[in-house]
Amino acid sequence: MIVVTGATGHLGRLVVEGLKQKLPAEQVVAAVRTPEKAFDLGVVVRKADYDEPETLVTALDGADKVLLISGSEVGSRVPQHRAIVEAARKAGATHLVYTSAPKADTTPLILAPEHKATEEIIRESGLTFTFLRNGWYNENYEQTVQQAVQTGSFIGSAGEGRTASAARADYAAAAVAVLTGEGHENKVYELSGDVAWTRAELGATLSDVSGKPVTYRDLTPEEHQAALVEAGLPEATAQFVVALDGNTRDGLLAETSGELRQLIGRPTTPIAAYVADVVKSL
Fold first, then answer.
1. Which residue ranges form the domains of the chain, and what is each CATH number?
2. Which terminal residue of the chain, N or C, has fewer Cβ atoms less than 10 Å from its own Cβ?
3. pLDDT tens-place string over residues 132-159
4. Which residues form the NAD(P)-binding domain (predicted)?
5. ∠253-16-49 over CA atoms, to 5°?
């Protein structure tokens, strides 16, 4: 039996759909905070609230493998993840797969500390593990693409930094491959897209796809933060966005390891394909 936490999220739903193509539905468990949101998945549904450990033990009962999709509540993830790991250990699970961040144990990436801490908890648990260190999703740029096409420009402070993004479906397919395959025990996979692109190149892609001129305007971090606050973002959110652009500028999201392509057995989805889909929907 394979249990998927966070199964009603964007990534979780894709993983469940992928598992259903390879396994009987009764062998897949969607462990979710709000069960009524999961019944359309067509698999076994169990309540699993990261903040209610007693629900986790029940949700993971009988699990052979568990996919721990990292929580979305920044600042609360470490205790939440610890509760899942403990429940998996109590349930006698043989393999825990975790969606982590690029080079989580060594990178200065702003998102990495909670992932590094979770990886340490998993290693210390004694469970067999696989760390899927997911890079950036094409879907992270949905609002940027929409706004840029509508206004003809977009801003940032990433400089010439590159982003090796891939589709969320690509990362989901990698999780399915690990959960249903063999030989992934105690492995760490650095997952990213096949091609790393700059923001200026994204602007050129937007121009080509939309048929309208779209330009990228690179700002200093200070100018970028001021512009975001002026546009209505809370100060803390603006600081976070600027920090991510700084990470991009420093090359922390640029690695094209090829490991995602190898796991899924096909090329990753290029940003241009995603841009085309978004533009078509406008």
1. 2-134 (3.40.50.720), 138-163+194-254+269-281 (3.90.25.10)
2. C
3. 999 999 999 999 999 999 999 999 999 9
4. 6-180
5. 85
